[in-house]
Amino acid sequence: MTEEFTIIEKEDIASLKFPTTDVLDDDNEVKTRISEINRALSLGNLEHSKIKIFFEDNESKKIVNTTVWAVTDKNVVLKQGVMIPIHRIYKLF
After folding, report:
1. 80-93 in b/e burial notation, b at 16+ Cβ within 10 A?
2. Cα–Cα distance between 52 and 73 in angstroms, integer?
3. CA separation for the pair 89, 23 (Å, rounded)
4. Is the pTM of this model over 0.85?
5. What is the pLDDT of residues 21-41, one digit of tens each?
6. Does any domain span residue 63?
7. Is residue 81 part of a domain?
8. What superkingdom heads the lineage (predicted)?
């Protein structure tokens, strides 16, 4: 899976543009994504562990290695208030 994703620095995410469509179309994958987000949030808050987030902006698929600090109903929040829309995330681990 990683071969089609480009590594990006967390600081560069703020300048990205995100379409409104969801990258996942399978209900089970969407449920799995929510579980992975909640797990990443726990790891970030309890152990300050970094995780890989696989996501897509309006140009290409990207991967960032970072800590999840918070989750809203629409976004995953990283350090310094950087946000990735949940509907643009493929996977977290």
Report:
1. eebebbbbbbbbbe
2. 20
3. 7
4. yes
5. 999 999 999 999 999 999 999
6. yes
7. yes
8. Bacteria
| Length of the chain in terms of residues written | 93
pLDDT (mean) for 45-60: 94
Beta-bridge mates of residue 62: 6, 55
Query: Which has the higher per-residue pLDDT, 44 or 22?
Result: 22
pLDDT given for residue 3 in this prediction: 74
Give the pairing of strands 61-66 and 6-7. parallel
Residue 1 within a domain: no
Q: Is 83 helix (H, G, I), strand (E, B) or coil?
A: strand
Which of 56, 66, 44, 48 minimizes the C-alpha distance to 17?
A: 56
Q: What is the pLDDT of residue 2?
A: 59
User: 76, 67, 27, 3: which is closest to 86 by C-alpha?
Assistant: 76
